[in-house]
Amino acid sequence: MALIYRAHFAFSKNPRINSKGFNTSAIFGFTNTFLEVFKKEKPTHAAVVFDTKAKTFRSDIYPEYKSNRQKQPEDIQNSIPYIKNIISAFNIPVLFKDGYEADDIIGTITKIFSKKNIDIFMMTPDKDFCQLVRKNVYLYKPAFMGRGVDILGEKEVLEKFGITSIKQVIDYLGLNGDSVDNIPGIPGVGPKTAKKLLKKYNSMENIISNSKKIPGSVGEKIKQFSDQGILSKTLATIKTDVKIQITLEKMNVSTPNTNALNSLFDELEFRVLKNRVFNQFDSKPKPPENQQLNVFETQKTSRKQYHIIQTETDLTELLNRLQNNHEICFDTETTGLNTLEDELVGLSFSIKEHEAYFLPISEDLEKAKTTILKIKPFLENPLKMIIGHNLKFDIQVMKKYDVNISNNIFDTMLAHYLLDPETSHRLDVISENILQHKMISIEELIGKKGPDQKNMKDVPLGVLGEYACEDADITLRLKNIFSKSIEKNGLTKLLYDVEQPLCFVLSSMELEGVSIDTNKLQQMSDVLKSMILASEKQIFNMCWGEEFNISSPKQLGAILFEKLKIDEKPKKTKTGQYATGEEVLKRLSSTHPIVEKVLMFREYKKLKTTYVDALPNLISKVDQKVHTHYGQAVTSTGRLSSNNPNLQNIPIKTETGRQIREAFIPSTNTNFILSADYSQVELRIIASFSNDQEMINAFNNNQDIHKTTASKVFKVPLNQVDQQMRRKAKEVNFGIIYGISPFGLSQNLSITRAEAHEIIESYFKEFPNVKRYMDEAINKARKNEYVETILGRKRFLRDINSRNQTIRGYAERNAINTPIQGSAADIIKLAMIKIYKWMKTEKLKSKMIMQVHDELVFDIYQEEKEIMIEKIKDLMENAMPLKAPLLVSIGYGENWLKAH
Beta partners for 824? Predict the structure, then answer.
């Protein structure tokens, strides 16, 4: 159960939800761990042991036992039957017995089989099992949260508890008690005292009988709570005599039941995991005689009419069909995914379900243009609805062939994103989940990714035609389902007025790209190289001249934790190495000056390799610019993502990192880079949502909101707010949006938790409407099980009513911050659409080239500078009316850094 809980909570921030709305996190995580240990350790025998819901003998003797535990999350409760079925499908016995815990069954098994000449590993993170360790019985603690696999034998257990005999583990546990299981122990006896007492008196019973000799309050507590101590020892003792029928033969690891696994994984939608399992065990599912293995429809089993256009007569017939239909579903097939460099191979069309046409496009450019010219009027006709999946890609491909697709579109990817934001939006996945139709995979056509992967133009025409027709046919079928769902769920305006118009804006931005100053990057690369060497030298000097590979976690860990001993209990990774990740080192930065130097070394190295040296390699051969890809259907809040390069991650917090922006330059020497950035947009949104007059007035009067907050929270006049107060207030202002806790605030500000609690309480007292908004947001989410942005974008919060406090708390934080983050995303999207349309109407030469968080970046012509500044500011600030006014700061210069 510990592994199941662990798996579930590992995905708590980004749960795996399948198309049926079922949370598969615990099942997926447990199965992954299960497979990993089987692959790594190759056990010959195995069993999986569960608790049951029945009361145990421990509850009978102490009713408060485990009474303080949080309720089991509903998603775990629903997952357990699937996990048991998966284990059974692996032909591994599932063991349990009413009246006993899993611990007791494991204890019994270890006792029975430890007499044989075999090694037994108890796979659990629970320290209580240390009492069962002996010559050939080990505790196998699986890797978790930066710590690697830890195997404890007798020697390790004795060292861990500071005792001389394994028998003393139970005494130790009884003395200390256990807050998780609500075992009381003896008050005032902690780990150090328990070790000292056991060293001198050997057992709980001896300690109690000698309590008069033990000085001070500890002796008094032992006398007073002696019965409680004995009870605690009894509760902590794992039974080893449970009557359970099990043999080694029954635990033999054998070939799994692949048909059963195939059925389970299909139901759970574990596509990648399914392939991994069958490859790992070198076996494939076989359908029973006269029976299909799964229920998916395929091209071979579906009724379809797919046509390949090979003659002028065929083409004429297709054109007539397109002419007579209001809705045209189409898809492009290309030689690759680079819309600037790759070529069109063919177009597929569908105007009726289960029917599609494939039109091959010649490699000869003139012949290709002639063919496309005949299709162009239909794709550009605003009276016809153009349907596609991820139309942004197709818009860019067709633009290259001088086809400007009409704004009257329906994008099934964007529709599905709005309807079900947290699941996969890939066409093949949606097809299986919604239509129960398994599509031909791209790998079947051109092979797996790698140097041997073929090109679409190498695929035989018949095979390519079937594949392409299926894409268009499936997309049309999904459109007919999604269009009704969009209307039913009140998402019409968001799809037709925001997301779909935005894909034309993003398409334009991606095609335009941004110019990069490679000379500047080369200079930065040289400077960073010097800085890396200098910091490297300083690090070596701090460890007495010993040279090592600082980039090697293994070598760095040995220096930090073995040679310099900067941490008494260093964490380890899955592979058993010391954990040296950024979070770990930041936590240890005050322990030794070398840590700060290592962090600086890493920053310089990352800047050099990830950005400065990498950006030139992303420059297109076509126009010598960098073209990022904006992910429009990625985040659950509605914000855009960016990759190749990831513009969102270009550093801004450090001076060295900011310099990278100097390399982003206008397309000509006479142009400027213009930056338009929303100021504190999320705070203005929360002020508007909460209708907090104090905050609204501060924004209306253009006051420093952080100073205003500090003045009220720390109860000092505005002119007496110092930088330290302002910094704390700023942390609270932004932290409130994310439901920051006193612990989180104390960590961020390096203050005590009590002080952090006091600051948050004072904030809510001074801004009661903000607190009211937060409470109302949570209550509304509990009722609806979703939250909405200002434009009605939904995020579903399945765990908002969970009985488990941890899971419920995470959903509650999302209930507060999603409407704010998502509304900020809605606002900048509206602004982008309005600016794009205005620039197009005015036929301006300037271009919108980047969107980064709350900032828009433009490449502007000098003669258009004044009108651009005036109009961009106006359109952004009036994108959507709020009670607290939106404010945009605008700058321009010869590069992005100077503009910003």
Answer: none
The domain boundary, picked from 765, 780, 805, lies at 765
Q: Decide if 381 is inside a domain.
A: yes
| Token pair listed for 464 | 């390519």
In this structure, the answer to whether residues 497 and 565 fall within a common structural domain is no
Both 520 and 509 in one domain: the answer is no
pTM given for the model: 0.79
Long-range Cβ contact pairs of 162-166 (< 8 A, separation 24 or more): 162/195, 162/199, 163/195, 163/198, 163/199, 164/198, 164/199, 165/202, 166/130, 166/131, 166/133, 166/134
pLDDT band of residue 47 (cuts 50, 70, 90) is very high
Average pLDDT, the chain: 90
pLDDT interval class at 884 (50, 70, 90): very high
The predicted model gives 665-679 an average pLDDT of 94
Domain contains 825: no
DSSP conformational letter for 619: B
**CB-neighbour burial class of residue 282 (10 A; exposed 0-12, middle 13-18, buried 19+):** exposed
| Structural domain contains residue 791 | no
Residue 662 has pLDDT above 90, yes or no: yes
Last residue of a domain, one of 224, 250, 276: 250
Q: Residue 166: its pLDDT value, please? A: 93
122-163: pLDDT as tens digits: 999 888 999 999 999 999 988 765 567 889 999 999 998 999
Q: Are residues 490 and 569 in the same domain?
A: no
Do 576 and 148 form a contact (C-beta atoms < 8 A)?
Answer: yes
- 718 is in which domain, residue-wise? 709-765
Element (H, E) at 308: strand 305-308
Number of domains observed in the structure of the chain: 4
Q: Are 114 and 235 within one domain?
A: yes
Read off the amino acid at residue 488.
Answer: K
Q: Please tell me whether residues 521 and 477 are part of one structural domain.
A: no
Looking at residue 145, its pLDDT comes to 59
pLDDT at 765 over 80: yes
Residue 291 has pLDDT above 60, yes or no: no
**Alpha-carbon distance 89 to 263, whole Å?**
10
Residues 535 and 413 in one domain: no
Name, in order, each residue with C-beta under 8 angstroms of 106's C-beta and a sequence gap of 6 or more. Answer: 49, 122, 124, 129, 132, 238
DSSP state of 183: B
Tens-digit pLDDT profile for residues 278-290: 776 665 555 544 4
Distance CA 338, CA 332 (A): 13
| Nearest Cα to Cα of residue 883 among 748, 705, 692, 716 | 692
Reported as a pLDDT band with limits 50, 70 and 90, residue 74 is confident
- CA distance readout (Å), 682 to 708, 759, 760, 776, 883: 16, 21, 18, 18, 13
What's the gap between Cα 248 and its chain centre?
41
Residues 525, 499, single domain; the answer is: no
Look up the CATH number of the domain holding residue 405.
3.30.420.10
The predicted-structure confidence for 357-407, as pLDDT tens digits, reads as follows: 999 999 998 999 999 999 999 999 999 999 999 999 999 999 999 999 999
Two tokens, residue 66: 């485990």
Strands (E), 58-127: 94-95, 120-123
Rounded CA-CA distance 429/474 in Å is: 11
Confidence of residue 186 (pLDDT cuts 50, 70, 90): very high
List C-alpha distances in Å: 213 to 33, 202, 217, 219, 222.
50, 15, 12, 7, 11
> Residue 606 CB: number of other CB atoms within 10 A?
15
CATH number where 526 lies: 1.20.1060.10
Residue 761 included in any domain: yes
Instruction: Specify whether 411 is located in the same domain as 492.
Output: yes
Q: Look at strands 855-860 and 672-678 and give their pairing.
A: antiparallel
Mean pLDDT confidence for 820-834: 96
